[in-house]
Amino acid sequence: MKIAYLDCFSGISGDMFLAALVDAGVPFSVLQDAVSGLGLEARLELRRVERSGIDSAKVDVVTLQGEIAETAHAGHHDHGHSHGHDHSHSHEDGHAHDHHHDHGHDTPHEHAHVHGRSLPAIQEIIRNSPLPVEVQATALRAFLLLGHAEAKIHNVPVESIHFHEVGAVDAIADIAAVSAGCHWLSTERGVERWICSPLNVGGGHVHCAHGTFPVPAPATLELLRDLPVYSSGPKKELVTPTGAALLRALDVTSSEFPAMKVLATGYGAGSRDLPGKPNVLRLVIGEASVPAASQQQGHAGIEERVGIIETTIDDATPELLSYVADRLLAAGAADVYRTPIQMKKGRTGMQLTILCSPDKAGALQQMVFAETTTLGLRYREEQKIVLSRSFASVDTEWGAVRIKIGMLGDGEVVNYAPEFEDCRRIAEEHGVPLKQVMQAAATAYLLKEATA
Q1: Is the pTM of this model over 0.85?
Q2: Helix, strand, coil shares of the chain as percentages rounded to 5?
Q3: Lower CB count within 10 Å: N or C terminus of the chain?
């Protein structure tokens, strides 16, 4: 199985992702054509730069007026958001609610409501473009995730979220071009799975009209839910909302550097040097290593090691255990479940079971001790067999839906399911029952396979 690994030791932003794709072998024309098809009066420019001694690609979004479309973010630059509501303070001239960001740039940029593009307007641009349906689906999902994160933070309808004119050009171009580049890797290089390292979010604070917030910014943190993060190095914002939204749109899983045969690498540069570390995103394309035992099974799936942590608890409330389960998942557990059991002296208790990659077992065990009332736990490792997974996209009468496909080792498809988030988005946007959308997507996939 071909995999793509994003090594985010200096975070991730949209432009860094673009540059890493080019440096890893994606033709620049694929990204440029994606931007040209959007009708944004913008183009991409590619150059070589050095970041702490590492030769890297750098991609900029440039308007037809020659302006680099960027907002100011510590080496990365793609916030570019605002929201159309008043937070209970005055907007008499319609311009008072600007955001100012100065994370390492010489001058702050203003993000004004009145010149923004709404989320529906951006969705229309993408849907009306000549981009392949699979590329559109990824780009639309990224913007919807970004919009929902902003709407949740500000407690407003997602339709009221606006993106500043220049920032929107940057974000639309980044997201559409990254989606096109990832699709090229899937179709031309056979990449089936995206993985990212734990994310270095940076540190310090982000400044805006609402006040000063710690890094990561609220919307970014919302998008990074369930992914492992940490803070290291300069007090700068290293993970931007656009970078976080792209990770979620690609359904990344997280791990330390996976076992693979390396086929290609690419380095995508941020906007400036950071003290003490290279400000780059590293993309590694490779072929996942499959244990010999798995290869001998022929039609079986891929074997992986899984860590299993178990403990039994009879003196904790259901609310506490529910909270602990959420915390464990956010810390990188693959799954957490609770099983009612009968314990000694007739006491009713719960068995808490955590599945994880072995490299995360130590940290999760510490969390179990810290967050629950248990005095002991059990740990073991076992072999698990998983199906190879890939995605296809199908058209329904309401829009594109991705289908998650599970395959045996010989490529035989044994499971398929419509992507829930795509179906939910369509159901909410069109006022259609969710089950109807899921049924239509499944039917469309079967028809597509029958005529292939």
Answers
A1: no
A2: 35, 35, 30
A3: C
